[in-house]
Write a structure and sequence with these properties.
single chain
């Protein structure tokens, strides 16, 4: 077995707040020592899992941004970390009377580009290998969770029974999260429960990774089920392992029952997002409904990624290392913008658009000359100015692991696909009402299944913005599939330079309903820095497309 030390960097001596104390210990030492010699040390080590979301860069934020780009929720023309390449569409076809086909600037499709960048030079040099960030996120987290499980069993440390169960559930939840990320994004992965710095060369299919993810969520559920909501030891433990900047209300912890519901929501997601809509069986729908019925409800506390007003007290040390900070038009102009295709999914009068989206003084058109998809008229209104999806002053929380809205919309989808139209639309209406959309209800309006599914699709696009679901949805709905195989998006709004269509004034632009052929990979290849040091054993599944 090969040594993959990068995946097992360890954190020691942590505190609830300060980023300076969420730093990595020597990653070449596979065995944490002093920090795990006491109950307090184990708690601090459990807290340190959060630091695995940020190793050199905020790995979770990079991953979620890439999902946002590929789901055409936001766009980014910058090449840093391979961002421009993940949302490099294949071609854009202008409508009549122009009927021009505009190929991608690079004249190669996204899969070809990403495969070409999956090399050690682009990984360690230019750092444009987009495939590494989510993989690193998952295995850093998984490695820390493995060490935590080992430490909890140390007979020299007298951990109270409830605290032990809570810490074990914490480790299993993060392992479930990590394997969910791998199984939902890569063609294959590795199941690794080791703490000696080694790994397993017997790769698993993405489906097997999802099975393992849900099995870890089940372990967490079993540990949490006997714990009472008001258990003081449980609450104290949770407050010790979740940083203050990740909690909207200080010292108010997610209850065991809320946490269990969150696990069920994630398990339901793992089934739903990893099948194309045409592949969903009646059995799948039944399982999703069973899980979502036991999933998150309105008012539940979930795990969030927050920001501290004092930059040094968080794991987002500047104005770029958080989902809501990256797209700050005041602090980070030019990096990313809401997509015109996302904008057109709002229904007329939706107050979330009115309050959450602002108009640019000048539209962005073919930014950096890298493609017409890199253009738009809007930016996110900051939370400080009444918005939802951006901040100019380090305020707000990003949902990265399930929400009651996501759960409700999964129930909506099951009902609509089972032709219980109004039963499904009721969930859509509930989400819109709770979010203050100000839209007329859809229940009782006589919508057929196709129309109801369109309401659902649009609502998932809006209510679940920046929650890491946009690409999963685009993939399963077939939008990112190559057009020749039935994919793409018709009537997709694109800001087109007037010079391209001979319109006037020559230096301006026209918004046109185009056809976009995305042609994206459904699942990514295993990154080069894994297979270069961990060659697949005989019998392993394919690790590349």
């Amino acid at each position: 077995m090969k040594k993959i030390i990068a995946f097992f960097a360890i954190v020691v001596f942590l505190t609830n707040c300060k980023k300076s104390e969420l730093q990595l210990d020597d990653p070449n030492s596979p065995t944490p020592t002093g920090s795990l010699a006491s109950v307090k040390g184990v708690e601090q080590f459990a807290l340190g899992i959060w630091s695995k979301l940020y190793v050199g860069n905020n790995l979770l934020v990079h991953a979620m941004n890439m999902h946002s780009f590929m789901g055409d929720e936001q766009w980014c023309s910058a090449g840093n970390w391979g961002w421009r390449y993940v949302n490099q569409v294949d071609k854009i076809t202008l409508p009549a009377p122009y009927n021009k086909v505009i190929p991608g600037v690079l004249v190669i499709d996204q899969p070809t580009q990403l495969k070409a960048l999956n090399n050690l030079s682009a990984t360690n040099g230019s750092q444009t290998n987009a495939l590494i960030y989510e993989w690193n996120l998952a295995y850093f987290v998984n490695g820390q969770a493995n060490f935590l499980l080992q430490a909890i069993e140390n007979p020299a440390i007298a951990i109270p029974a409830t605290e032990k169960a809570t810490l074990q559930a914490w480790a299993y939840w993060w392992k479930g999260f990590a394997y969910s990320r791998i199984g939902s994004m890569y063609v294959a992965g590795v199941i690794n429960d080791k703490t000696d710095g080694s790994t397993d060369s017997q790769y698993k299919t993405r489906q097997q990774m999802i099975t393992e993810a849900n099995a870890n969520f089940d372990k967490a559920i079993a540990l949490l089920t006997p714990i009472a909501a008001a258990d003081a030891v449980y609450t104290s433990t949770m407050n010790a392992i979740i940083p203050a900047f990740n909690k909207p209300t200080p010292n108010v912890a997610i209850t065991p029952q809320m946490w269990i519901r969150g696990c069920n929501t994630y398990k339901a997601r793992n089934i739903l997002v990893n099948k194309k809509v045409g592949e969903l069986t009646s059995g799948d729908l039944t399982t999703i409904k069973t899980l979502a019925t036991a999933g998150l409800i309105q008012g539940d506390i979930t795990f969030l990624l927050g920001i501290s007003a004092v930059a040094a007290e968080g794991i987002s040390p500047n104005n770029q290392q958080h989902i809501l900070l990256w797209n700050s038009h005041a602090n980070n102009p030019g990096w990313m913008y809401p997509s015109e295709r996302w904008v057109q999914d709002f229904k007329s009068g939706d107050q979330r658009f009115v309050k959450g989206v602002s108009t640019l003084p000048l539209a962005e058109v073919n930014r950096q000359a890298r493609g017409y998809q890199f253009g738009g008229r809007y930016f996110f209104t900051a939370i400080q100015n009444g918005g939802y999806w951006s901040t100019n002053a380090r305020t707000g929380f990003a949902n990265f692991a399930g929400s009651w809205e996501e759960n409700a919309l999964m129930l909506a989808e099951v009902e609509i696909r089972n032709n219980n139209i109004d039963a499904g639309l009721l969930f859509v209406d509930r989400v819109r009402t709770a979010n203050g959309a100000g839209l007329a209800v859809t229940v009782g309006t006589g919508l057929n299944q196709v129309q109801a599914l369109e309401e659902l699709r649009r609502e998932r696009r809006i209510a679940l913005t920046l929650r890491g679901l946009a690409f999963y949805d685009a993939r399963r709905w077939g939008v990112t599939t190559k057009a020749s195989a039935g994919g793409g998006r018709a009537n997709a709004n694109v800001v087109v330079p007037n010079a391209e269509i001979g319109a006037t004034p020559a230096g301006s632009w026209t918004l046109l309903p185009c056809f976009i052929d995305y042609n994206y990979w459904d699942y990514w290849d295993v990154p080069v820095h894994e297979y270069s040091y961990n060659s697949p054993a005989s019998g392993s599944p394919a690790i590349a497309n």
